[in-house]
Amino acid sequence: TFMYLIIMIVQIFLPCYYGNEIFVASQEISQNLFHSDWIYGNAKYRKSVQFIMENLKNPVKINAYGIININYEIFTSICNSAYSLYALLNKTQS
After folding, report:
1. pLDDT tens by residue, 48-88
2. Which residues, including other chains, have CB under 8 Å from residue 62's CB and lie 6 or more apart?
3. In Å, how far are 62, 79, 88 from 91, measured between CA atoms?
4. Which of 23, 75, 76, 78 is least surrounded by Cβ atoms within 10 Å, i.e. has the fewest?
5. Is 1 a residue whose pLDDT tops 90?
6. Who contacts 39 (Cβ-Cβ below 8 Å, separation ≥6)?
7. Which pLDDT value is given to residue 94?
8. What angle do CA 65, 66, 67 make, to 5 degrees?
């Protein structure tokens, strides 16, 4: 039972971890572009950087069914709900 529990937690954690990493990386790309020497580039380069920064105003997120953002918050929410349900079922069996 313990191995099953660990495997299920890892199976839920991995998408949440990578979803959070993608979100953080997309925020860092915008900041790194801004702090680069893009001002000294040619006009085409500056326009490309401006276009990318405009698109990154809304960070990249992984969604489940277009409603739930996959990140650490949803992982903790799932774990809390699962434990609450387990505690309730355990209490009703006693």
Report:
1. 988 988 988 888 888 888 888 899 999 999 999 999 998 99
2. 15, 18, 19, 22, 23, 69, 70
3. 36, 18, 5
4. 76
5. no
6. 46
7. 66
8. 95
- The amino acid that residue 42 corresponds to is N
> pTM for this structure?
0.74
Stretch 36-51: mean pLDDT: 89
Cα–Cα dist 78/68, whole Å: 12
Distance (Å, whole) CA 88 – CA 21: 34
H or E stretch covering 44:
helix 43-55
Spell out the residues 6+ positions from residue 19 whose beta carbon is closer than 8 angstroms to its own: 61, 62, 69, 70, 71
**Two tokens at 28?**
């860092």
